Each structure stands twice: as C-alpha cells, then as structure tokens.
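Standup notes
- DV: blocked on the single-chain target, sequence here:
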Amino acid sequence: MNLNLKEVLLLAIIGMLVFFTLDGCNAKRTAKQQSITIAEYKDSVSFYKSESGELIAINTAIMVSSEKTIADLKKELEDLKLKNPEVVIKYRTNVRIDSILVSLDIPCEKFNKDYYIDSTNYKVCINLTDTSLLLRELVIPNNQTIAVGNVRQKWYKPTEYSVVVKNSNPHVESVGLKAYTIKPEKKIYEKNWVWLTLGVLGGGYLGHTLNR
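- DV (later): unblocked, structure below
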C-alpha cells in the first residue's frame, strides 16, 4: 500500500495524539500513586550490621517528581535557598548518655537530692550527694535536614552545587560535612547523540522513500 505525504502526516499526528493521551493518563496515575506513597511514608528505622560489624540504621527511600509534591518540604527548601535538590534526607536522632558517676568531696552535711530538667532541646536527670554526682540521663533530641542541590547564598553570587544541613536543636553543631554524588556512566543507547544520529538517518531515509 502506497501512502502519500498527507496520509503519512495524518497518521503521524494521530499517533502523537494517542501517545500524549496515554502519557497524560499515565502521569495522572503516577501522581496519584505518589501521593499515596508520601502519605504512608514513615520515618521508622531498622538496623543491620556492616561488614565491619557496626550497627547501621536503614529505612526505605522514595523517589518523587518534585519537592513541590511535599508541602512542608517545599517551604523548608525555600528557607535553605535550595532549588531543584537531587536528594533530601530527614534525619531524627536522640543523643542519650546515662549512668555517669563522678566522685565528690563536698565539706558539708550529708544530703541527697535529685534534679530533673525537661526542656525542648534537652532532658537532664541528676542525683547529687555530698560525695557524688550521678548523671542518670542526658537526652539531646535533634531533627536534621540534609539536602544536595544548587544553592545561591547571596543574590549577587552564582549558584553552587552544595550539601546543606539544618539542625533543629541549637545545641547541635555541625563541625564537618562532605557529600559525593556518584553518577554512573550512561550506556551507549542512553546518550543523546546516538538518538539524534538515528533520528537524522531515519528522517533522511523516510524523506528519500517518500520522494521516490
């Protein structure tokens, strides 16, 4: 069956309309499923042992199409001056220290007192006597946001690919920070120039065929 140029163009347009319709339906399904996944996502932690025997915390990670799909995350990233981040990690920790005993020699009558401080940023439980100080418990909670992306620190400065860390507890200080983004080398069929070359060759062949 021989097709003229008009028929070929009509078939191409119909094919494109079908493709975009199916693609739009698929995008809606993906967005709906993504919303469900985000709503059900928990920050629960499990553990496994590394090769060296250290205890490692682990949780599943999810992929989203944009930070805009997570309402509270979008606002926080704007505050960090971070646009189009590649990775965002929400990390919740408790530093817990207990049972530290310090011997004392206070020249006074015998006494035994308990002190308990429950603050937003720390909790302390102490027992003090004339002969000892016992730190029963010290807890320092912290919520940490770690993100990797382009940051513009000042309006007149260029953006810079960076890793940023935000601590919710003012008593927690970041003293060292490194980030490595590992990008695997693309396969030959994933490279743009390959598809461009195939497109040019295919277009040239189609044009030659139609002109015959």
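- Follow-up: The mean pLDDT is 78.
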